Amino acid sequence: MAVDVTSEIVIHAAPGRVAAYAADPDNAPRWYANIESVRWQTPPPASVGSRLDFVAHFMGRRLAYTYEIVELLPGQRLVMRTAQGPFPMETTYTWRPHDIGTLMTLRNRGNPSGFARIATPVLAAAMRRANAKDLAELRRIIETPAP
Fold this sequence. Notes:
Elements: E1 3-11, H1 15-22, H2 28-31, E2 35-40, E3 51-58, E4 61-73, E5 77-82, E6 89-98, E7 101-110, H3 115-118, H4 120-143
C-alpha cells in the first residue's frame, strides 16, 4: 500500500520569499520538527542533481537518508527523492500566488516496505499531523518580522 500525503498552508508573504526559504535545505531543521540535520554531499546551492544527507526522528525511530533533487523550478516547484531505507519517498513542494500571499503545498509519497508497510495507515496519519505542524512553523518563521 502506498502513502500519499498532501498538506497545504497559506503564508502571508510573496511566493518567491516563501520558496527561497523553504527550498533551502539548510533551513529544513529550523522548520521541520523531526529533521535533526542536513549535510550537503554536493556543493550548494540547490540544483537538479544536488544530494543531501538528512537525519530525522519519526515515530520513535532515527532515520538517515539521502535525498536527490530531481526537479527545481525556482519559486514554483521542488521535487526530491530517496530510494533507500524502509520508506523510499518523494517530497514535492509547490508555491503558488494566493490572494493574501502564497499557497504552499507539501506532498510526501512513497511505498513503505517491511514494518513500515504494515503500519501504512498509521504512518500516513502521523505524516499528515507532522506536515501540518511543520508548515505552521514555516509560516510562523516567515511571517514573524525580523528583530
